[in-house]
């Protein structure tokens, strides 16, 4: 058993972007949001992820712009640090070590050099009671400094950051908890308390004097209001809640409201830009919507949709290599792990979803791809009780024209009871789908054939129905070459031949109902693995039909790697999950990792790498061809990473340019191969000694383009240097001006003689004595020709030689 610290569990693409309110830069060009242990920077115009601010070692819980510099942002984290960033260039400026977990951050222009933070109270072990503290930032030249000067502002505040806000000018701070509003005045150091009303909005006025305050009540939301936000000028109020409708209230006009409905999931946070031109809303479906002040949606930043639970398995689309799982209700989402970007949603149910608690609606519960990605099978159902159960089996074909899946066949009565497992065959020649249900049957589905022509048709039909002693099947799996099908019936595993549908043998040695079932791959394809409810992991040898080995372990998820012989087993015990990676041919694990997470793991998948790793270490070889991703019960998508891989990713993230200041753009990627081939030919034809040196101008341009704009001198200062960098010095010997004048007069005389000769040739041509003569040039053309002859074109040779 091998355990190493070189492999660690990291948060990967798909982290929540709706945990904290997003912030908009002062120029409305960027949106910043916390995502796992990163701060992501997006473009408001293109919705593209630009870069990440990476440095925290735990969940980022709050971000806010630096009031002293609008190009900088503060971030706080559970790791107990506050970091100051230049978010334009992604540079970490300073780290302030607080020393305790931080859950929110606030700043005020009036309180210079002071941060306000949410921290857990010392007497609270469950992080349910919080207090607001002020931290004075020490002035130091070091990049990392401890901030020890801390004082409490208020205790027993809400853990929701949206329930705390600073007033104009930083004179007071308001915080709400339960149904009570508290206002703390810094000058008086007093707290005034007011009572609120559930589900309604109150606008308070003159609350500086506790006995003379007034308020007005606004009501539209039928449930609790999740968030409020004033526009910068204070003339409008924005509100949002579970209805997924953004409401804009106009100050002084109680009955005048504007609505922006159907924004997706429930609205959790609302932010406004400093100029009031853009709004941002965060939603429960892990989405950020960018909205113009005219109440028009101009952009959507969609993260990995995370609902209450993932009912399908984690799957990889064989075509796009995207992660596929449950998305918004009734949909499958396709998410790029490489780009950390939501690609698109596939509407499976094709019905309008109604956001109402307790309403029974269709959900996608099963999905599977064939080996080529040409077919997708889905199962949707509704009705928690068997008597009210309603489900459909659908087959989707990939359309090359639209580059998406199109519904091909809908089977309304695939089984008489709930489908609990299904899988496609592994063969690329013949596509077959097997479904197993609680009606004690498993069925094989194939593309139908016309009864007259016996040619394959573009629809699916049942090819075989199998059962075993009226036992309910629990799982099904194809071998790597699709020559065998294993179907488990309670405690018995049956082996079938898909060619003849003959039951070849049964395996029934271990006690307990079979939960997971999978075949070995590559050199281990002769083995069959299974887990039972009696906490046993068993391996059978299909050549001898005997139990090869077994071990006592409670496996919550058994996941084979389709690209190697390795199999991953997640085991939950003692309130944490352990990982074991092994080969079926050897009961000894290749790798083990204790305490991967504190929750059970029921969903995992191996993702093929674009570039395989070259690790020779036994403990990391299982990560060479593919990467293991898993999903926890808290909907955290995690993966395993090696130190070598992290160093490579860090170096690639710092690489801004390639090949002499050529940016990595889609145009460069299109022509990059041609450039490399051309560069190789130039290297072979021109030795290194004959290669012209890089001009000083290109170095100047590189420095100009790579230096952050806010630290450059004024453009007027750079103009002359920039223009001079394009000029090429004349290294030739200057001629005597008198000699040049004499040469010019000689050229004019020669030109006149040539003109006379042309006149005589023209006369001969008219008489037919000359076949071909040079056409006559005008005096203006002769002068232009003379000027061109005097021009020095030697600089072009150096330019051509330096061209890659």
UniProtKB/TrEMBL annotation:
The keyword Transcription applies. Residues 742-757 have a biased composition (Acidic residues). The keyword Nucleus applies. Residues 314-635 form the WD repeat-containing protein 75 second beta-propeller domain. It is found in: Nucleus, Nucleolus. Keywords: Nucleus, Repeat, Ribosome biogenesis, rRNA processing, Transcription, WD repeat. Residues 734-780 are annotated as: Disordered. WD repeats lie at residues 53-95, 218-250, 412-445. It comes from the Eukaryota. GO terms for biological process: positive regulation of rRNA processing; positive regulation of transcription by RNA polymerase I; rRNA processing. InterPro entries: Beta-prop_WDR75_2nd, WD40/YVTN_repeat-like_dom_sf, WD40_repeat_dom_sf, WD40_rpt, WDR75. It holds the Pfam family Beta-prop_WDR75_1st. One of its GO terms (molecular function) is RNA binding. PROSITE patterns: WD_REPEATS_2, WD_REPEATS_REGION. Coiled coil: none annotated. One of its GO terms (cellular component) is small-subunit processome. This is WD repeat domain 75. It comes from Cyprinus carpio.
């Amino acid at each position: 058993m091998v355990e190493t610290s070189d492999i660690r569990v990291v948060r990967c693409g798909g982290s929540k972007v709706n945990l904290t309110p997003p912030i908009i830069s002062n120029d409305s060009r960027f949106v910043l949001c916390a995502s796992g242990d990163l701060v992501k920077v997006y473009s408001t115009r293109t919705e593209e992820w630009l870069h990440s601010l990476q440095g925290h070692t735990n969940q980022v819980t709050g971000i806010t712009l630096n009031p002293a510099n609008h190009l900088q942002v503060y971030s706080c984290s559970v790791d107990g640090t506050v970091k100051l960033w230049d978010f334009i260039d992604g540079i970490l400026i300073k780290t302030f070590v607080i020393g305790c977990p931080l859950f929110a951050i606030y700043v005020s222009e009036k309180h210079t050099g002071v941060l306000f933070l949410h921290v857990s109270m010392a007497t609270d072990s469950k992080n349910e009671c919080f207090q607001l503290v002020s931290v004075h930032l020490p002035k130091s030249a070091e990049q990392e400094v401890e901030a020890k000067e801390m004082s409490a502002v208020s205790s027993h505040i809400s853990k929701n950051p949206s329930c705390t806000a600073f007033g104009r000018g930083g004179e007071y701070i308001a915080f709400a908890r339960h149904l009570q509003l508290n206002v703390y005045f810094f000058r008086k150091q007093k707290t005034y308390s007011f009572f609120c009303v559930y589900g309604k909005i109150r606008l308070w006025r003159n609350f500086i004097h506790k006995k003379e305050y007034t308020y007005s009540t606004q009501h539209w939301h039928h449930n609790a209001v999740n968030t409020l936000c004033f526009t910068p000028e204070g003339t409008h109020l924005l509100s949002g809640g579970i209805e997924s409708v953004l409401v804009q209230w106009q100050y002084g006009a109680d009955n005048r409201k504007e609505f922006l409905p159907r924004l997706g999931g429930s609205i959790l946070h609302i932010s406004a830009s400093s100029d009031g031109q853009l709004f941002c809303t965060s939603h429960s479906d892990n989405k950020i919507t960018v909205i113009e002040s005219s109440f028009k949606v101009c952009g959507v930043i969609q993260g990995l949709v995370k609902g209450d639970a993932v009912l399908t398995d984690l799957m990889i689309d064989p075509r796009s290599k995207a992660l596929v799982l449950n998305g918004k209700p009734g949909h499958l989402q396709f998410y790029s792990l490489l780009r950390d970007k939501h690609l698109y949603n596939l509407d499976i149910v094709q019905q309008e979803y109604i956001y109402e608690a307790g309403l029974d609606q269709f959900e996608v519960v099963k999905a599977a791809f064939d080996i080529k990605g040409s077919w997708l099978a889905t199962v949707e159902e509704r009705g928690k009780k068997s008597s009210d159960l309603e489900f459909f089996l659908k087959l989707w074909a990939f359309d090359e024209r639209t580059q998406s899946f199109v519904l091909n066949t809908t089977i309304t009565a695939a089984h008489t009871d709930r489908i609990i497992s299904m899988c496609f065959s592994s063969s690329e020649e013949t596509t077959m789908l097997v479904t197993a249900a609680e009606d004690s049957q498993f069925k094989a589905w194939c593309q139908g054939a016309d009864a007259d022509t016996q040619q394959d048709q573009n629809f699916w039909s049942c090819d075989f129905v199998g059962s075993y002693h009226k036992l309910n099947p629990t799982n099904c799996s194809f071998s790597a070459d699709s020559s065998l099908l294993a179907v488990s019936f309670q405690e018995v595993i049956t082996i079938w031949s898909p060619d003849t549908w003959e039951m070849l043998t049964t395996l029934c040695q271990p006690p307990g109902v079979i939960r997971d079932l999978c075949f070995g791959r590559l050199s281990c394809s002769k083995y069959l693995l299974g887990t039972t409810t009696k906490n046993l992991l068993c391996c059978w040898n299909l050549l001898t039909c005997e139990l090869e080995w077994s071990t006592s372990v409670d496996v919550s998820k058994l996941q084979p790697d389709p690209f190697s012989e390795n199999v991953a087993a997640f085991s939950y015990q003692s309130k944490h999950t352990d990982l074991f990676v092994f080969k079926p041919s050897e009961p000894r694990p290749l790798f083990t990792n204790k305490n991967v997470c504190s929750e059970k793991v029921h969903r995992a998948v191996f993702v093929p790498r674009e570039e395989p790793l070259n690790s020779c270490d036994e403990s990391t070889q299982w990560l060479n061809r593919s990467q293991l991703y898993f999903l926890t019960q808290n909907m955290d998508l995690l993966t395993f990473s090696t130190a070598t891989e992290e160093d490579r990713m860090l170096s690639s993230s710092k690489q801004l340019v390639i090949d002499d200041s050529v940016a990595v753009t889609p145009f460069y990627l299109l022509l990059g191969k041609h450039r490399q081939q051309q560069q190789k030919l130039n290297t072979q034809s021109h030795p290194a000694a004959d290669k012209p040196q890089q001009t000083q101008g290109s170095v100047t341009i590189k420095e100009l383009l790579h230096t952050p704009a806010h630290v450059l001198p004024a453009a007027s200062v750079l103009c002359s240097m920039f223009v001079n960098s394009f000029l090429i010095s004349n290294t030739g010997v200057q001629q005597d001006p008198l000699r040049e004048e004499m040469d010019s007069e000689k050229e004019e005389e020669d030109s006149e003689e040539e003109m006379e000769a042309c006149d005589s040739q023209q006369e001969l041509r008219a008489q037919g004595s000359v076949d071909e003569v040079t056409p006559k040039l005008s005096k203006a053309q002769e002068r232009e020709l003379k000027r061109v002859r005097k021009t020095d074109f030697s600089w072009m040779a150096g330019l051509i030689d330096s061209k890659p």
